[in-house]
Specification:
About 0% of the residues lie in helices and about 50% in strands. The protein has strands at about 5, 10-15, 20-25, 30-40, 45-50, 60, 70-75, 80-85, 90-100, 110-115, 115-120. It starts with a strand and ends with a strand.
Length: about 120
């Protein structure tokens, strides 16, 4: 497992942008595929995006395709989620998660989780 810490959440108006960061620490951090998930009040956790350990393969959930971009900088052990054209429906707690090597869209496949960061989009 690796330790994960998210940052970058906040309040933004609809149509605006935010960039979330997820810093990983641990001996095997660069071998981890990373995912972003979100959970809104009263709803199940939802897959947002994932990136493999090399950073050359990404997957996105349908609600965010074309608006969000996941990337990573292995020299900094950090994964980013660039969120553009934000909508009120994007309001949720966003959490990053890690698992060895390959990505997954299923939250139970990940063994490391951050504490989450709140994103609120006002209309």
């Amino acid at each position: 497992q690796v330790a994960l810490v998210e940052s970058g959440g906040g309040l933004v108006q609809a149509g605006g942008s935010l960039r979330l960061s997820c810093a990983a620490s641990g001996r095997t951090a660069n071998n981890y595929a990373m995912g972003w998930f979100r959970q809104a009040p009263g709803k199940e956790r939802e897959f947002v995006a994932s990136i493999n350990w090399r950073g050359d393969a990404t997957t996105y959930g349908d609600p965010v395709k074309g608006r969000f971009t996941i990337s990573r900088d292995n020299s900094k052990n950090t994964v980013y989620l660039e969120m553009n054209k934000l909508e009120p429906e994007d309001t949720a707690v966003y959490s990053c998660a890690g698992r060895m090597w390959t990505t997954s869209t299923r939250d139970h496949d990940y063994d490391s989780w951050g504490q989450g960061t709140q994103v609120t989009v006002s209309s």
